[in-house]
Amino acid sequence: MTSYETPVPADADAEPQKSVAEVFGSMHTNNFPDLLRQLGGCLLVSTYQAGKLVILRPDGPSINTHYRQFNRPMGMAADTQRLALGTAIEIAEFRNMPAVARRLQDPPRHDAVYLARRVHISGAIDIHEMAWDKHGDLWFVNTLFSCLCTLDMRSSFVPRWRPRFITHYATEDRCHLNGLAMRDGKPRYLTALGESNEPQGWRKNKRNGGILIDMATDKVIARGLSMPHSPRWYDNKLWVLESGRGKLVTIDPKTGVKTDIASVPGFARGLDFLGPVAFIGLSQLRETNAFTDIEITDDNADRQSGVWAVHLETGKTIALLKFTGAVQEIFAVQAIPGVLFPEIISEGELLGSSYALPDEALREVGFTPPSAADGCTAPATQTS
What we know:
Blueprint: E1 2-3, H1 20-23, E2 26-28, H2 32-39, E3 41-47, E4 52-59, E5 62-69, E6 76-78, E7 82-86, E8 90-96, E9 112-121, E10 127-132, E11 138-142, E12 147-150, E13 158-161, E14 177-183, E15 186-192, E16 210-214, E17 219-225, E18 228-234, E19 237-242, E20 247-251, E21 258-263, E22 267-274, E23 277-283, E24 306-311, E25 317-323, E26 332-337, E27 342-345, H3 349-353, E28 354-357, H4 359-362, E29 380-383
Parallel strand pairs: 9-27, 28-29
Antiparallel strand pairs: 1-2, 2-25, 3-4, 3-26, 4-5, 6-7, 7-8, 8-9, 10-11, 11-12, 12-13, 14-15, 15-16, 16-17, 18-19, 19-20, 20-21, 22-23, 23-24, 24-25
């Protein structure tokens, strides 16, 4: 195992009296950096408990764990061009402006720089998973109102679908709708922790009351799941994390038949893929966590949190990164194929001096050469 910590600003530490290593420590298997390089991507990890978005990026023989602070970050969607992140009361959207990389370090090492572009205030709706459809519209799970939503310019959110057993919209988290899987560019499969139409009704049977819903037919296709999260359609299969058992499973969307593929030593939540490898988020189960009276609690004495890499064909863990400090609970794991060393910028001087312009306008932009005397640089300008 190799340990590595990325320095973070002192004001970002939850406990300033401790060292960075104590507060945001991690360790990983020696093969994790090369695995990401071979697969050609990096990972983003959201932890609402620690208030961080963590970038896992290969850096020589180590994984560079790069922390960015947000207010309760949870669901996210990302690709080479954009990033969306759901937080306590808003959805933040970023665009990749790689031309900014030359202003971050000399020589430049970042192959993507995601700059904040806009923020949508949704209100405190307990946003869970999100994804873009084939038209570029962002869909997200509104857990508090038990529905699936999109955005417009006037509304906090636009309800587009709710399970048939939910009779009306209410701030009552009736079924704990949480996971969203896209198929053929459209929202298709969703997970919930209970088939309930009562306020907080899902809590009555957390151990095996979970369900998987096919949005296209509005039918429950699998019941009896132990706290399901993170449904995904990948490689023509429907994957789900059965968090309460610490299992990665496939479920036949026609019959509902479940097949165990892999086991991980903790509460599994957050899933994405690069090639033949699944990256699974693990969270500790603390005594104060509402999710402790489930099967995995009986075999979770080590209380691990981190990201486990599982080979899909064999179901074996082939690499892992374990958080050893303040990061105890993970919500989402997002792979970005084609990007190895990104940066995410949500505040600071660069936002005021970096500009994205349409192609036709960019062709008419000219810059005054930077002064060698003052060492300034021209603003980074890029097509949108």
